[in-house]
Amino acid sequence: MQLDLDEALRYLGAGSHAPPALRSQVEHIADQLTRSIQPRFLYRVFPLEHHADGFSLTGANLRLTGRTARTMLSQCHQAVLLACTLGPSFDAMLRTWQARDMASAVILDACGSAWVEAGCDQAEAELSARLPGLYLTDRFSPGYGDLSLDLQPALCAALDAGRRLGLSVTDSLLLNPSKSVTAVIGLAHQPQMARVRGCAYCTLRETCALRKGGNHCVL
């Protein structure tokens, strides 16, 4: 598992055209992070029931409605719930760095975002290896497109993520620890196209610093 330096640079608003000095600094901090903390993840596969207004996952108190769910899951017979986190150790590390060197802490924060995504990528690779003959959709998370953040508590409960990963959901529906991700992945018998892409689907499009600077993230 590797941390994608270009992704960390995108989180910093620099992208692939970052000055060599910045890239070197990001590489150094990423190395410190990956030596100290490893992403932890868990996932669970559920049968997927199709309804007129959306989808439900058998065995989970979770209903997925809206355009994003329809686009991603219309050809699927199962769905995977995924959670990944860097844990409280990253938050403690970040606080220490913020007290010592804020500029480096900003880079560490960006590297943390890229590192937890690398954990999600690793989980997907493991899923693909364990489920030969099935095809995965892109992963999509509460808050992306029109998939409501209100799903976070039920998604975490379905995975028992509080006990197994130490995840909790704040009153404002954010995940704690801070570098944590939950996602849904559809499973189908036929190849799945990359369907949900671009700023038009993203709930952060109006405030995104990358977009204002003329750059784009991997979404």
Structure description:
The chain has 219 residues and is α+β, with helices and mostly antiparallel strands. It has a single domain (42-99, 115-212), classed as 3-Layer(aba) Sandwich (NADH Oxidase), CATH 3.40.109.40. Helices cover 42% and strands 19% of the residues. The protein is built from 8 helices and 8 strands. The protein has helices spanning 5-11, 20-36, 67-73, 87-100, 102-130, 152-159, 161-165, 209-212, and strands at 40-51, 54-57, 63-64, 78-85, 135-136, 168-169, 175-176, 180-188. The chain has a 6-stranded antiparallel β-sheet. Strand 1 and strand 2 (54-57) form a beta hairpin. Helix 1 (5-11) packs across helix 5 and helix 4 runs antiparallel to helix 5. The mean pLDDT is 90.
Q: In percent, how helical is the residue content?
A: 40-55%
Rg is: 18 Å
Main structural class: alpha+beta
> How large a portion of the residues is in β-strands, by DSSP E?
15-25%
- Write the CATH architecture name: 3-Layer(aba) Sandwich
Reading off the top of the CATH hierarchy, the class is best stated as Alpha Beta
Low-confidence stretches: none
Domains, number:
1
Number of strands: 8
Strand order of the largest sheet: 3-2-1-4-8-5
Helix/strand order, N-terminal first: HHEEEHEHHEHHEEEH
Number of helices: 8
Can you tell me the CATH topology?
A: NADH Oxidase
Mean pLDDT: 90
Largest sheet: 6 strands, antiparallel
The coarse overall form would be: globular
Question: N-to-C terminal Cα separation, in Å?
Answer: 20 Å
